[in-house]
Design brief:
Blueprint: E1 9-11, E2 17-18, E3 34-36, H1 73-79, E4 88-93, H2 99-110, E5 116-120, H3 125-135, E6 142-146, H4 150-160, E7 164-168, H5 185-202, E8 205-210, H6 223-227, E9 230-235, E10 242-250, E11 258-264, E12 267-270, E13 289-296, E14 299-311, E15 319-322, H7 326-339, E16 347-353, H8 365-377, E17 385-387, E18 390-391, E19 397-398, H9 403-412, E20 417-421, E21 432-436, H10 439-446
Helix pairs in contact: 7-8, 8-10
Length: 453
């Protein structure tokens, strides 16, 4: 008798295979991602009817693939011009960050050009209507539906024929074709595949809302990010009104642009010039503060770094950070102590940013070091001074990218002096650049010798 073909199981995350089912992948250690795929088949695939004939690339019509503006300039900046018919976008973010509010604003603006279908699986239509009234996002061409079945979504699409479809969220949808709980790997994969096929066949721009895990990554199989055309990450501190939208993946535009928004009770507003949010307005300079210019994608943003150094009675002094990378802050503190002679080993050091912005790039190192040194010496940096540069373990100040773009943004906002790495003193009219080779030289040039009176 012929032997029955062996059944194999494969991990949806990394592709690891095994001959028996296990709850946890033996390769990537993910739980609940191993599914049965059946025995390998050696049958020849028979040809079938094609949906459209293959054409030379020079004869392909590109008019239908042009992006259409959404009406929200900051979102269009990130997308590269707007939404593309048939394109599928995945918007992910932490709970309460404002994903539904942003999409409701987009839906109301897009409804001016044609019907929009907003499908919610987490709220009732009445709840969405109340929020739309509060935001002023009402339109006769904006259709709402509360569904959790992807088959029902297809029926609504047939009835409305929308130009934009929003599904909030993909983890609440289920497909009757497969087994599994909502939000499970199998259901998320099947629902996403069905919505992508619907979008491509009918040329509907589609936005899917995705949940995130505790570490901030998108929940569900990694395949989800590969299937969609655009992956957007909506970020922000729930205690701050600032929100940032960045493209993690974009088949239709750049991935180094960010959009800035302000979330308030009256809705979400795009911020074309958000630099003022990250500065403290004061009459006199204060020790322990330094202004820098960070690049978020291709966008320069002025930000302020603050440090407070105080005597400690603890055997292990505290190091607290807010808005900065803790590991990088500790490294800069060690370089200050060892290479620049700033004594902070027995002191508590608290460092933060202004306005809730997160600064993670190395170009902030020099500003953090100068703010900390100024707090130790109780000396304020001169008014109108900014600092840009990466600090190495040897105490050297290294060059960073986009120095001229950063300096032009600083000059536009009224800053007159900039401390930058040596050989990066690119001339910008209206701002004096001072090149430094190491951290000790930067502290000596930036901080006056006399103490504040």
């Amino acid at each position: 008798m012929a032997k029955a073909p062996k059944t194999t199981f494969r991990c949806a995350e990394c592709g690891w295979t095994t001959l028996k089912w296990v709850g946890r992948c033996g390769e990537c250690q993910a739980w609940g991602t191993v599914d049965e795929v059946g025995a390998p088949s050696t049958e020849v695939i028979a040809p079938s009817r094609v949906s459209s004939p293959a054409l030379p690339i020079t004869e392909i019509d590109v008019e239908a693939a042009h992006a259409a503006p959404t009406g929200l300039d900051e979102l269009d900046r990130v997308l590269g011009g707007g939404v593309v018919p048939g394109g599928v976008m995945l918007l992910a973010g932490e709970p309460g960050v404002g994903k539904s509010t942003l999409l409701l604003e987009v839906a109301a603006l897009a409804a001016d050009s044609g019907p929009v279908l907003y499908v919610t699986g987490e709220e009732s239509t009445g709840q969405v209507r109340l929020r739309a009234e509060r935001l002023g996002a009402l339109s006769s061409k904006l259709f709402l539906a509360a569904e959790t079945s992807v088959s029902a979504v297809v029926s609504h699409v047939d009835a409305v024929a929308p130009r934009l479809l929003i599904v909030d969220s993909v983890q609440t949808m289920v497909s009757p074709e497969v087994a599994g709980v909502p939000g499970g790997v199998t259901q998320v994969r099947e629902v996403t595949g069905a919505l992508i096929r619907l979008a491509k066949e009918r040329g509907i721009a589609t936005v899917l809302v995705g949940h995130v895990t505790k570490d901030g990554s998108i929940a569900g199989p990694r395949l989800l990010e590969h299937l969609v055309d655009v992956v957007l990450q909506f970020e922000g501190d729930r205690h701050s009104q600032l929100r940032m939208l960045r493209a993690v993946k974009n088949r239709y535009g750049p991935t180094d642009e960010i959009g800035c928004f302000e979330l308030s009770d009256s809705g979400i507003i795009g911020l074309p010039d958000p630099s003022g949010l990250f500065l403290t307005r004061r009459n006199e300079p204060v020790p322990g503060t330094c202004v820098t210019v960070t690049l978020e994608g291709r966008r320069p943003l002025i930000a302020e770094v603050q440090a407070l150094v105080s005597a400690s009675n603890l055997p292990a002094p505290r190091r607290a950070t807010s808005g900065l990378d803790t590991g990088r802050v500790n490294m800069v503190m060690a370089v200050l102590e060892r290479r620049a002679g700033v004594r902070i080993a027995t002191a508590d050091v608290f460092s933060s940013t202004v306005g809730g912005v997160r600064l993670g790039e190395p170009a902030v190192d020099l500003a953090l070091a100068l703010a900390t040194a100024g707090s130790v010496k109780d000396v304020a940096l001169p008014r109108g001074l900014i600092a840009i540069g990466e600090v190495g373990l040897a105490g050297d100040v290294r060059a960073v990218s986009g120095v001229q773009r950063r300096l032009m943004e600083a000059q536009r906002l009224g800053f007159t002096q900039a401390i930058v790495p040596r050989n990066s003193e690119e001339p910008v009219e209206g701002i004096e650049t001072i090149g430094v080779e190491d951290l000790a030289e930067g502290i000596r040039l930036a901080l006056p010798a006399r103490r504040r009176s």
